[in-house]
From TrEMBL:
<keyword id="KW-0548">Nucleotidyltransferase</keyword>
<dbReference type="InterPro" id="IPR037033">
    <property type="entry name" value="DNA-dir_RNAP_su2_hyb_sf"/>
</dbReference>
<dbReference type="InterPro" id="IPR007644">
    <property type="entry name" value="RNA_pol_bsu_protrusion"/>
</dbReference>
<feature type="domain" description="RNA polymerase beta subunit protrusion">
    <location>
        <begin position="33"/>
        <end position="444"/>
    </location>
</feature>
<feature type="domain" description="RNA polymerase Rpb2">
    <location>
        <begin position="470"/>
        <end position="534"/>
    </location>
</feature>
<feature type="domain" description="RNA polymerase Rpb2">
    <location>
        <begin position="671"/>
        <end position="718"/>
    </location>
</feature>
<dbReference type="GO" id="GO:0003677">
    <property type="term" value="F:DNA binding"/>
</dbReference>
<dbReference type="GO" id="GO:0003899">
    <property type="term" value="F:DNA-directed RNA polymerase activity"/>
</dbReference>
<dbReference type="GO" id="GO:0000428">
    <property type="term" value="C:DNA-directed RNA polymerase complex"/>
</dbReference>
<keyword id="KW-0479">Metal-binding</keyword>
<keyword id="KW-0804">Transcription</keyword>
<dbReference type="GO" id="GO:0032549">
    <property type="term" value="F:ribonucleoside binding"/>
</dbReference>
<keyword id="KW-0862">Zinc</keyword>
<protein>
    <recommendedName>
        <fullName>DNA-directed RNA polymerase subunit beta</fullName>
        <ecNumber>2.7.7.6</ecNumber>
    </recommendedName>
</protein>
<dbReference type="InterPro" id="IPR007641">
    <property type="entry name" value="RNA_pol_Rpb2_7"/>
</dbReference>
<feature type="domain" description="DNA-directed RNA polymerase subunit 2 hybrid-binding">
    <location>
        <begin position="727"/>
        <end position="1085"/>
    </location>
</feature>
<dbReference type="GO" id="GO:0006351">
    <property type="term" value="P:DNA-templated transcription"/>
</dbReference>
């Protein structure tokens, strides 16, 4: 048996068979999960916060030297800086005034409407000087700096240490919980990854104003220690007819931040110390044969009037925007001050990612940027693709939280400085309470506000980003997982641009090709593919190690290669900074790959990428955050034969050790071992561009036809290009593309089991299917998303035929007998919340009123218990009271502020929670449940975008049946297939039939070379069934055999959340608006059915004047007005005494009664208030 196992792993040539790769993929998901990109980003933020607070940015000094009548000997100064930091797992106070705290878990935070946050504790070092002498150094006790919302399953969450299944269930969490989101004020919030352009990269695009600037070069320079604010530099070169106002010839111009005008390129070179023409030409022109570029540069040099460093910096200082603390612009004529300002500008705003004082390196990079731009301008190099994935970075939760934290910490530092200054000035510095000085609410409130509203403040006064944090969609388990892998593009949805929306070639394997919303967000909101990851920035010590590697024998300084030598040498970049040059790039690349392979830290292997661009002679190394990466097999050449580096023994060892623990009781990290051995390599979009990747291991074999391809990598499996919801679709490669997109949208709306602890949760809305089934035809991706364990659908027997015509236009017919037996029956849960503020709580009384109480309808209160709350198991109807709350008015009468059950259908109280909020106010939550039985109008869908509503339900005896007496559960229309081209559904039905007969789940994973329709049909034929899935059916009405064979078999169907019971609406009379006396709008307010403008036009075209009068007037806001027949103004009428008088002409006899809409009467009164006189002429 052991021999058979080993022989089954490899083929005749000794290569591992592709089906065994799935064990490796399974190990990847067991080790990394599906939300690793969220957790690793947030954990990095938690770690970096401890370093950020210790920087000099948040160190300050205050003194009392400005205070009146202070002797020099009594001058006192305090220098404050943060010392040590530590985190505490989430806790909550037992009472508002108590210092006693108790543990809190995410489930309790959800139930009680609390924020699940970890305390960041810190102490402060205070250095005190008096009279210029050091007198004391204090270190405060630890105090709360902030409460930082804790991402579930992160390092600061209590769940991170809970590994065993029983312990997870004991903590009231879902056993499949993967974390990656926050709990803020009881609501689950997820931070959506934000797409942005790559920083520190020179990009040349077609100009936004093509008439003036044909091209524009851009770089967003972002210093390594500053993740918040980037400095954008734009380079433009006008067309021939466009001239600069100050210069007589056209020259390249740069737009810099905080400058009042554009800066001529040559002037900037001079300011950086390049005063000679030769140095400027050598810095820009790399090819001595490129006369066109040479002419542009020399023309710009001749046009430059500022030939010395002092004059150039003075010009920059004069044209810089300067402002005081109040924001008013400062104008100065001091030349020395201007030069200092110009120098400061060059240090801080010009290419800060290269350094502050390194003007030489900035000049080198500026020359490279100019060469790149002019090469595109002169047509010698193609412009950059704005939509290339390598030009994009994903701003994850950690980066966004760091933005928020830094801004809030600056506010807090400013607040603390003012507080300390006030204390020192008033000579009260003997006993400073640092906990009060550093108000923890400042950072805490900013974090809560951003996560609650989703509006993320941006630095530099920019408009806040909207929709960054969103409520986690919990309709199904897979929809919640998909939300955690969402990516949002900054392009506005209303813009009709197509390029950013289209699927780009470089997105293969990183972005799901199917999962994107319909409508204006189509293509702008994307989902990560199954195995795609987002990088976290490499620590500075590792970056320094890479810099040390660049000091090898193959590298030389940039200064040695400037000028025409640059045309034959290769430029070496690290995260956008030009560091070195090399004449042997391949050897240097091999050394760097060897360093990556030998690195002991797995993070270097996952994050570091290298690209050798032979065309442009560039070696680019990246270690920054936000790049999409994915794992691939590495390929090696063994005696002329290409093959992946995975061996039979390694797969065998993997199968043996999967799920086992190591010596410390932790699960063994087997995936990391494959990464360490170099069998698998993480590749980003830029490195992939310069790689040759085989789709299947069989493609590596040189079969003699055509030239041999030098492959560098091999796909693990092409099915992994799909996202979470796309992976649930069986045979998506057989469907038309939009159908897969529709299913990805409907997969989020399917009713199933959304969490294993749904009975404990108090979600505002939830649907649970009574008898969910795992699909007969599943995919490997669905297994990793736990779709088989927590499913959202049922395997229904589906017949594709026309039967009595009630399944036209995408509707379906259903078997009422199956429905009665529980097919697609579900439970709807709704939670009602009553939150009583602390001020009200003492006055409120909760009880069940008895007969004789001065209330309108005491019978509505009969379901309440003695404590005023309906107990679990109580059946309630619409408008019944579920929480009886009363208070006494000023005159002692009983006022009712009870809560009523508003939905129209009946319900049962499922669960009641009485808790206290963070402010110790009383809160009552009642979860109601109601059964939803499928009926005509409910929406259903297969997993192939074939959606439809129920058009008719037939009794079982009226449904067609086959020779075995099997009735179909669903009858769908055959006309839904040809135009939609959902062949995948037909293949699923065929394979599902095989699965039902053999009693096993079948594999519907896409891109299986050996699985064809012929193979499936042969299997079905061997099981004594018709080869193509057809069956002879007999009519349930007549008992006669139908004329044609019918395609019938099990297909996985989903019940969607769009139910008739939630949408049916109609009324005769009901509430109306007080102002206009017209019916209210909306089902929830029992509103009327509006006859709109288009309906009105239709009625007019048919001449239905009486119907129009009834709908628009009689059934709406009919009103009687008395009008004077002489002056035609409204009259005053007293119907009780039958007296009428015109208030204008005082006539009492010539008065007519007119019926007009109340809205018209309101308009007339408003016109009269504006001294406009509307007159009504009544027909006699």
């Amino acid at each position: 048996m052991q021999d058979n196992f080993e022989n089954d792993i490899t083929d005749e040539a000794g290569r591992v068979k592709p089906q065994w790769f799935w064990y490796l993929i399974e190990e990847h998901f067991r080790e990394n999960g599906l939300v690793k990109q969220q957790l690793s980003s947030f954990n990095n933020f938690v770690k970096r916060v401890q370093d950020i607070v210790k920087t000099d940015t948040f160190k300050f000094e205050v003194n009392n030297s400005d205070t009146l009548r202070v002797n020099p000997a009594d001058e006192e100064s305090h220098t404050l800086e943060f010392d040590e930091t530590k985190y505490r797992y989430p806790q909550i106070k037992t009472s508002p005034n108590s210092n006693v705290k108790e543990k809190i878990f995410p489930h309790e935070a959800r139930i009680r409407g609390l924020t699940y946050a970890s305390e960041l504790k810190i102490n402060v070092k205070d250095t005190i000087y008096r009279g210029g002498k050091l007198v004391d150094e204090k270190t405060s006790d630890f105090f709360d700096l902030a409460s930082i919302p804790a991402m579930l399953k992160s390092k600061i969450c209590r769940l991170v240490s809970i590994v065993k299944l029983n312990d997870i269930i004991q903590s009231d969490e879902c056993q499949f919980e993967q974390g990656g989101y926050f709990v803020v004020k009881g609501s689950e919030k997820v931070v959506i990854a934000q797409e942005k352009m790559s920083p520190n990269t020179v990009l040349v695009f077609e100009g936004s104003d093509m008439a003036k600037y044909p091209f524009e070069g851009n770089i967003n320079s972002l210093a390594m220690n500053d993740e918040v604010r980037s400095h954008k530099i734009r380079m433009d070169f006008p067309k021939n007819q466009e001239m600069n106002k100050d210069l007589k010839v056209k020259v390249p111009m740069l737009t810099m931040s905080r400058m009042m005008c554009d800066v001529p390129l040559v002037l900037l070179f001079v300011a950086l110390g390049y005063e000679t023409d030769e140095k400027i030409v050598d810095a820009i022109c790399f090819d001595e044969k490129d006369n066109e570029m040479y002419n542009i540069v020399t023309t710009a040099i001749q046009a430059n009037e500022y030939t010395t460093v002092e004059k150039a910096r003075e010009w920059i200082g004069r044209n810089s925007k300067r402002s005081n603390k109040e924001g008013d612009e400062i104008v100065t004529e001091n030349i020395e001050k201007m030069r200092r300002d110009g120098t400061s500008k060059l240090k801080t705003d010009l290419l800060p990612h290269i350094g502050v004082d390194n003007f030489e390196s900035k000049a080198y990079f500026l020359g490279y940027m100019t060469n790149h731009f002019l090469s595109v301008y002169t047509g010698k190099r193609n412009g950059d693709d704005r939509d290339h994935l390598a030009r994009k970075r994903m701003l994850m939760t950690g980066g966004l939280m760091m933005e928020l934290f830094k801004n809030a910490l600056k506010k807090l530092t400013k607040y603390a400085r003012n507080k300390i200054q006030d204390i020192v000035s008033h000579k009260k510095s003997d006993n400073i309470d640092y906990g009060k000085v550093y108000n923890s609410k400042i950072i805490t409130d900013d974090c809560k506000k951003a996560l609650s509203t989703g509006n993320w403040p941006q630095p530099g006064g920019k408009e806040a980003r909207h929709g960054v944090a969103q409520v986690l969609n919990r309709i199904t388990f897979t929809s919640a997982l998909a939300y955690l892998r969402k990516i949002s593009s900054p392009v506005e949805g209303k813009r009709k641009t197509q390029k950013p929306r289209q699927l780009h070639n470089t997105q293969w394997g990183y972005i799901c090709p199917a999962e994107t919303p319909e409508g204006e967000q189509c293509g702008l909101v994307k989902m990560l593919s199954l195995m795609a990851q987002i990088t976290v920035a490499l620590p500075l010590q590792n970056v320094q190690e890479i810099k040390d590697q660049l000091n090898s024998q193959y590298c030389k300084d940039i200064s040695e290669c400037l000028g025409h030598n640059m045309n034959t040498t290769t430029k070496v970049f690290l995260n956008g900074s030009w560091l070195k040059c090399t004449d042997e790039p391949q050897k240097l690349l091999d050394d760097l790959k060897q360093y990556r392979k030998n690195s002991e830290k797995g993070k270097v292997k996952k994050v570091m990428s290298m690209v050798l661009d032979q065309l442009h002679r560039e070696l680019r190394i990246y270690t920054d955050a936000g790049r999409c990466t994915r794992p691939l097999f590495t390929v090696s050449n063994n005696n002329g034969e290409l093959g992946i580096n995975l061996q039979k023994e390694q797969i065998k060892q993997l199968c043996i050790e999967m799920g086992r623990n190591d010596e410390n009781g932790q699960k063994k990290k087997l995936w990391a071992n494959f990464l360490t051995k170099g069998i698998i390599e993480y590749v980003d979009a830029d490195e992939e561009e310069m790689s040759m990747i085989a789709m299947f291991p069989s493609d590596l074999l040189n079969r003699g036809s055509g030239p041999a391809v030098n492959y560098t990598h091999c796909e693990i499996n092409p099915a992994l290009i799909m996202g979470i919801l796309g992976s649930i679709i069986p045979f998506p490669d057989h469907n038309q593309s939009p159908r897969n997109t529709y299913q990805c949208a409907m997969g989020k709306q399917a009713i199933g089991v959304y969490a294993s602890n749904y009975q404990l949760r108090m979600d505002s809305l939830g649907h649970v299917l009574f008898y969910p089934q795992k699909p007969l035809v599943s995919t490997k991706g669905a297994d990793y998303a736990k779709f088989g364990e927590i499913p959202a659908g049922i395997n229904a027997v589906v017949a594709v035929c026309v039967y009595s015509g009630y399944n036209q236009e995408d509707s379906v017919m259903m078997n009422q007998g199956s429905i009665d037996r529980g097919l697609f029956r579900s439970m709807c849960f709704k939670t009602f919340l009553k939150d009583y503020k602390k001020g009200e709580e003492t006055d409120l009384m909760f009880f069940r009123p008895c007969e004789g109480t001065d209330l309108k309808d005491v019978s509505k209160y009969q379901h309440l218990d003695v404590d005023g709350v309906a107990p679990p198991g109580t059946k309630v109807r619409a408008d019944d009271v579920i929480i009886g709350a009363f208070y006494k008015g000023k005159s002692g009468e009983l006022k009712d502020c009870s809560m009523r059950y508003k939905p129209r259908e009946n319900g049962v109280v499922d669960q009641v929670v009485v808790a206290t909020t963070e402010n110790r106010a009383k809160m009552i939550k009642i979860k109601m449940r109601s059964i939803r039985i499928p009926q005509i109008g409910d929406k259903f869908s297969s997993r192939h975008g074939q959606k439809g509503t129920v058009g008719m339900t037939y009794r079982q005896e009226d449904m067609p049946f086959n020779i075995e007496g099997i009735n179909p559960d669903i009858i769908m229309n055959p006309h839904a297939i040809p135009s939609r081209m959902t062949v995948g559904q037909l293949v699923e039905c065929l394979l599902g039939k095989v699965g039902a007969l053999v009693g096993d789940v079948q594999n519907g994973t896409p891109f299986q070379p050996g699985l064809t329709v012929d193979v499936i049909s042969d299997r079905l034929h061997k099981l004594k069934y018709q080869r193509w899935g057809y069956e002879a059916l007999f009519s349930g009405h007549t008992g006669r055999k139908l004329d044609t064979l019918v395609y019938m078999g099990p297909t996985y169907y989903q019940r969607l959340k769009h139910l008739v019971d939630d949408k049916v609406h109609g009324r005769a009379t009901g509430p109306y608006a007080t102002l206009t006396r017209q019916p209210l709008e909306g089902r929830s307010r029992d509103g009327g059915l509006r006859l709109g403008e288009m309906e009105r036009d239709c009625m007019i075209s048919h001449g239905m004047s009486a119907l129009l009068r009834e709908r628009l007037f009689l059934a709406s806001d009919r009103y009687q007005v008395y009008v004077c027949d002489k002056c035609h103004m409204p009259a005053v009428a007293n119907q009780r005494s039958s007296t009428f008088e015109c208030s204008c002409c005082k006539d009492r006899t010539h008065i007519s009664k007119v019926e007009i809409p109340y809205a018209a009467k309101l308009l007339f009164q408003e016109l009269m208030s504006m001294a406009i006189c509307p007159r009504i002429y009544a027909e006699m």
